[in-house]
Amino acid sequence: MEKQAVTIYDVAREAGVSMATVSRVVNGNTNVRSETKEKVESVIEQLNYRPNAVARGLASRRSTTVGIVIPDVTNVYFSELSRGIDDVARMYNYQIILANSEEKNAAEVVESLLSKQVDGILYMGNIIDDRLRDQLEKSNVPVVLSGSVDVENQNPSVNIDYISAVQEITDKLIVSGHKKISFVSGPLDQTINTEFKLKGYKNALKNTGIKFDESLIFAGEYEYQSGYQLGDEIRQSGATASVVVDDEMAAGVLNFMTDNGVKIPEDFEVVTVNNSHITLLTRPQLSSVIQPIYDIGAVSMRMLTKLMNNEELETPEILLAHGYVKRESTKN
Amino acid sequence: MEKQAVTIYDVAREAGVSMATVSRVVNGNTNVRSETKEKVESVIEQLNYRPNAVARGLASRRSTTVGIVIPDVTNVYFSELSRGIDDVARMYNYQIILANSEEKNAAEVVESLLSKQVDGILYMGNIIDDRLRDQLEKSNVPVVLSGSVDVENQNPSVNIDYISAVQEITDKLIVSGHKKISFVSGPLDQTINTEFKLKGYKNALKNTGIKFDESLIFAGEYEYQSGYQLGDEIRQSGATASVVVDDEMAAGVLNFMTDNGVKIPEDFEVVTVNNSHITLLTRPQLSSVIQPIYDIGAVSMRMLTKLMNNEELETPEILLAHGYVKRESTKN
DNA sequence: CTGTTAGCGCGTTCAA
DNA sequence: TTGAACGCGCTAACAG
C-alpha cells in the first residue's frame, strides 16, 4: 500500500532542513540560499523524490490538470485536434484527463472532470444543452470550445469560418454547372450543421438563385458506413454532387458511387471539409476545405492556459484561416 | 478562487449530522439508518454537493484514476484500442489520464502519471527500455500491456498471437504462388516487429523452403505516407506481394501500386494485420488479419481493474483469437 | 448506527 | 533566508 515511498519530510530530514524549504526549492522559489538549494536538490535526486501531485493539488487548490471532452477519439478529426491540444498542454506542464463523451453523457463526463478539480476544460463536440451550459457556467472553471460551436456562445472558442468555407465549396460546384447539389450532414440536432455548414450551403444557393430543396439534405453519423449507406439515397435523389461535412462520411459516399459505376468526378463530384489524411486514402482522392486542425487544437489550448492564468483574452472567438485543395473528386 | 463551493462540512452541518456520516452515505456504506441517509442525500442534492476527488484521493490513497500511455492517438489502431479501454474504465468508475508518448518520452510521461498517483497504468507501445521497465517495476502500481509486447515480459498483457497471425497470411501468399514476398514493417527497434511479426513471416518461409531474403524487408513508420514512399522500393525489389504490419502503411503501399499501374491483386497482393476501418476505405479493399482491437483494449482494462483490486490473475498473458478476412487485395 | 479524531502530503502564512 | 504551524477536504479507525 505504501505507494508513496518518499515524502517531502524524508527529503527535509535527510537534507537537514525543514519541509518548507524543500517545498520552496521544488517550486522554484528564489528565496533559498544556493547552498541549501543544492543540498536539497541532491537529496531529492538521491532519494528519487517525486512530489505527490494529489497532495499538492489539495494544498494549492490547483491540479495543473485540464479536462478534454471529446465525442469520439476514433474519429480522425477529433484525434488530430487532440494532438494539437496535447502538445501545447505538455508545453505548459498541464496534465490531461481525456473523456469520451459520445455527445450524449457530456454532462456526466463534465461532472466527473469537475470533481477531479480540473483547472480548465477544453470542449469538443457540438451538442451543448442547457443543463451542460448551466453546469459549466456555475463551475467557475474556464472553458474553451475547440473546433466546436455553440450558438448561445458564452465561451471562448477556436474554429474556422464554417459558413464561408462551405459556401465557397458549394459555389465551386455551382460554377461547375451543378443544379442539384446534395448536402450530406451530421446529426441535425447539432448547431454546427444547422446553423453553420448548412447555412453556408444555403447561402451559396441563394446567391446564385438556385432554389433550396429539402430532399437534397441527408443526415447521418460521422462515420464511413453512414456515408456509404446514404450513398444510395443520394444517387436516387438525382443529385449530381455532394458537399459532405465529414471526411469519413465523404469517403463512404465516394466509395458507394464508384462501387456502383458512378464515375467521379465525371458523373458525380464530392467535396469534404476536414482535410484529414483520410482524404488521401481514397481513390480518387477527396477535394476538401483545408482546415488547420492541429492548430485549432493548439490555439484553443493556448487560450485555455491564459484563462487559467487569469489573463485577458484579446479575442474570445478566434476564426483561423481556411482554404481549399482540389484533388480528384471534383473538377475544380 | 473558491472553486470548491460546498464541502462535506457544509452538508454535515445542514443535515445535522457529522461529516463521517456524510462520508458514509457518499461512499455507499450500509451502516447508516435509512432516514438519516435520505436526509443527507436530500441535503447533498439541495446544496449540489460534489465530493472533491483530490481530497478523497489524498485521504484514501486511491485516485480511482488510471494512466493510459498511447504512442499516437491519431493512429486508428490505438484509438480503437482506447475505446475499449475507456468503456470498461467507465464501467468500473475509473477516470483516465491519457498521455501521448510518441514512443520516445515514455519514461517522462510515466513519471508524471505516477506523480498523479494513478492506481494503474495501461501501456500501449512497443518500445520498453530498461529505464522504463525499472521505473514501472519500482513504482508498485500495476501495469498491463495492451496490444503491445515486451520480450522481457514481467507485465500482464493482452494481444493476439502475432507470430501465428502473420505466419498464416504469409502462408496464403505462398500458396498463391508467390516466391518473393516483401515484409513491410514498422521500426525495427520494436520487438513486436522483430520478435513477433517478422518471426511469423520467417516461419512461413522456412516451412515452405523459401530462402529468407533481407532485401525484401522494408521498415517505415506507422503512417500512410510512409507506406506510400516505401512503395517504389518495394516494386523495384521484385516482390510480387506485401505483408504489411499496419493498416495505414498498407493503404499507402496499395495506393502507390494502383497509382502506378500495378494491378491489385492480379499483379501484386497486399495483406495487412489490424483490420481497422481503414481497410474498408481503400479500393480495392484490404484483406487483413482480423484482430479484436476493441476487445483487446477492453480485456486489458478489465485485467487492470483486477490487479488494482489485488485480485489474482488466472492468466497473465492473454492471447485473444484472431482470424482472417479476404477482401480485394488478395486472391485468397 | 453515529461521532471524534487523526492523519494523507504538501503549500503557505507568519515569525524569527 | 529559514522554520513552525495550520489547513486543504476527505477517509478511516476507534469509540461509544
Automatic annotation (TrEMBL), chains A, B:
One of its GO terms (molecular function) is transcription cis-regulatory region binding. SUPFAM superfamilies: lambda repressor-like DNA-binding domains, Periplasmic binding protein-like I. CDD domains: HTH_LacI. The keyword DNA-binding applies. Residues 6-60 form the HTH lacI-type domain. The keyword DNA-binding applies. InterPro entries: CcpA, Cro/C1-type_HTH, HTH_LacI, LacI/GalR-like_sensor, Lambda_DNA-bd_dom_sf, Peripla_BP_I. Gene3D superfamilies: 3.40.50.2300, lambda repressor-like DNA-binding domains. Residues 7-50 form the HTH cro/C1-type domain. Keywords: Activator, DNA-binding, Repressor, Transcription, Transcription regulation. PROSITE patterns: HTH_CROC1, HTH_LACI_1, HTH_LACI_2. Global transcriptional regulator of carbon catabolite repression (CCR) and carbon catabolite activation (CCA), which ensures optimal energy usage under diverse conditions. NCBIfam families: ccpA. This is Catabolite control protein A. It comes from Weissella coleopterorum. The lineage of its organism: Bacteria, Bacillati, Bacillota, Bacilli, Lactobacillales.
